[in-house]
From TrEMBL:
<dbReference type="Pfam" id="PF00296">
    <property type="entry name" value="Bac_luciferase"/>
</dbReference>
<dbReference type="GO" id="GO:0004497">
    <property type="term" value="F:monooxygenase activity"/>
</dbReference>
<dbReference type="GO" id="GO:0005829">
    <property type="term" value="C:cytosol"/>
</dbReference>
<dbReference type="GO" id="GO:0016705">
    <property type="term" value="F:oxidoreductase activity, acting on paired donors, with incorporation or reduction of molecular oxygen"/>
</dbReference>
<protein>
    <submittedName>
        <fullName>Probable oxidoreductase, LLM family</fullName>
    </submittedName>
</protein>
<dbReference type="InterPro" id="IPR036661">
    <property type="entry name" value="Luciferase-like_sf"/>
</dbReference>
<keyword id="KW-0560">Oxidoreductase</keyword>
<dbReference type="InterPro" id="IPR011251">
    <property type="entry name" value="Luciferase-like_dom"/>
</dbReference>
<keyword id="KW-0503">Monooxygenase</keyword>
<dbReference type="InterPro" id="IPR050766">
    <property type="entry name" value="Bact_Lucif_Oxidored"/>
</dbReference>
<feature type="domain" description="Luciferase-like">
    <location>
        <begin position="12"/>
        <end position="315"/>
    </location>
</feature>
């Protein structure tokens, strides 16, 4: 089942951030956008120095998020790091001009010596549609057109093209060219059948967000993605799966839960309000259930996180695992400790176990 891993080193493990600026639940104070960006860059440096594989940044266009220009922040990170892959998480492709996107990430690829990637998707919020003059009802058509154009830009230095939503290209010079032959692009999925089928039909990687609950309910989506991809003429080796989720790691599971609960509950309430819903007011008992060993919320000591990651690997045979560690106003010092434990204790064990299973299956 794990034949999808393409090397002997096990799955890639990394972290991502959406750059939310949420008031601290204890003090009620929010840090500045400037401080948030500095902490994001410092997180990436720590992840790189500790040996994690990938760092991602999400795109939002709201005052309560610090990152709208992901390529700019990733370019700053590129200059502060050496090895870690750098990806958007997520680029709202429907409201992004593909030519500009390619230029920005090709430049990032050059600055980072070939480390740039893109995860494209819809995102949780819709503010980019009116902001950039698009109609949300055109979402699917826009996404397909922009994705297909981006792939053509990936493949050709000069391009003639015509579509529905932007001006045509006539022997346009597409510059600069990245270090890699093509910039890797994944499609982000929140768990819908449509997004899994789309990723399979396009033959791109699928980054699946599993933010809580029982992870086994997503197994059918991964199977749909791979089956659709194979039916569309792609090889199984082309169809890479990434899993993303929320997490927090501390020395003991009890300590992790005690430290994380106020910030996770704060995050849930804040996002509910952002989305126009009633605050969830998550109780400690509900939180305990959400962090139990069989669920997808990664909160605990290193061994519990290892066990949860390997359980998901048994379900999905995926190539990449990314955790978001910095939600709800949690202080940077706690995030840094989580990064350290993920990199030094969790990642090596998970890589060894997944590489070992790969060798058994050969």
């Amino acid at each position: 089942m794990n034949e999808n891993i393409q090397n002997n080193s096990g799955i890639e493990i990394g972290i991502y951030t959406l750059g939310d600026i949420v008031p601290d639940p204890h003090s009620g104070q929010s840090i500045s956008s400037r401080q948030r960006l500095q902490e994001i860059i410092e997180s990436a440096k720590l992840a790189d120095e500790a040996g994690l594989d990938i760092f991602g940044i999400g795109e939002h266009h709201r005052l309560d998020y610090a990152v709208s220009a992901t390529s700019v922040v990733l370019a700053a990170i590129a200059q502060a790091t050496k090895n870690i892959k750098l990806t958007s998480a997520t680029t709202v492709l429907s409201t992004t001009d593909p030519v500009r996107l390619f230029e920005e990430y090709a430049t990032l690829d050059l600055l980072s010596n070939g480390r740039a990637e893109i995860i494209a998707g819809r995102g949780a919020f819709l503010e980019s549609f009116p902001l950039f003059g698009y109609d949300i009802s055109d979402y699917d058509t826009l996404f397909n057109e922009h994705f297909n154009l981006f792939q053509k830009l990936n493949q050709k230095e000069r391009l003639t093209w015509q579509g529905q939503f932007r001006s045509p290209l006539i022997e346009a010079e597409i510059s600069p060219r990245p270090v890699k032959q093509e910039i890797p692009i994944w499609i982000g999925s929140g768990g819908s059948q449509q997004s899994a089928e789309r990723a399979g039909k396009m033959g791109t990687g699928m980054a699946l967000a599993i933010l809580g609950g029982a992870p086994n309910r997503f197994k059918a989506l991964v199977e749909t993605y791979r089956a659709t991809g194979i039916a569309s003429g792609y090889e199984l080796s082309d169809l890479k799966v990434g899993i993303t989720g929320h997490g927090y790691i501390s020395t003991t599971t009890g300590q992790a839960k005690d430290e994380y609960y106020p910030y996770y509950a704060n995050y849930r309430n804040y996002v509910d309000q952002q989305l126009g819903s009633k605050a969830s007011n998550l109780s400690r008992a509900e939180f305990e259930q959400m962090t139990s060993p069989e669920t997808a919320l990664f909160v605990g000591d290193p061994q519990l996180i290892i066990d949860k990651m390997l359980y998901q690997y048994e379900l999905f045979g995926h190539q990449r695992m990314m955790l978001q560690l910095d939600i709800g106003g949690i202080p940077f010092s706690k995030v840094a400790k989580s990064i350290e434990l993920l990199a030094t204790e969790v990642a090596p064990a998970v890589r060894r176990a997944t590489a070992g299973q790969l060798q058994k299956n050969k």
